[in-house]
Design goal:
single chain, about 55% helix, four-stranded antiparallel β-sheet, Alpha-Beta Plaits, alpha+beta
Length: about 120
Amino acid sequence: MKNKLYLGTFILLLLASSNSISAQNTTNSSNQIKNLIAKKRAFNSKFGFGFRVQIFYGNETEARSLQNKFKLNFPDVYTKLDYDQPYWKVQVGNYKTRLEADKAMVGFSEKFSGLIVIPLGK
């Protein structure tokens, strides 16, 4: 009797899981989802995407000095010196997600302070 109960439960679970697997496949082919993906791609191509870590915002002399110090400590990380009148910004890295930028910022915070994550395209 127990074997029939176990067999019945197994068959019921098997049917339930196969139904949920096929349900997941149909949601990806929805026209609404395809439209949302297309809109997101268009937005990214127009405005850019990604993140950088800003390590300084201030005068030119300090900005150049801090950029050189950063390059010595992290030679493999991209650095960018940007002028946003009347201040200079030193931004580092090119990260696809905020999580990647946050992880990198933790590593940079050992040698630098006042770091913030900046979204690209703004």
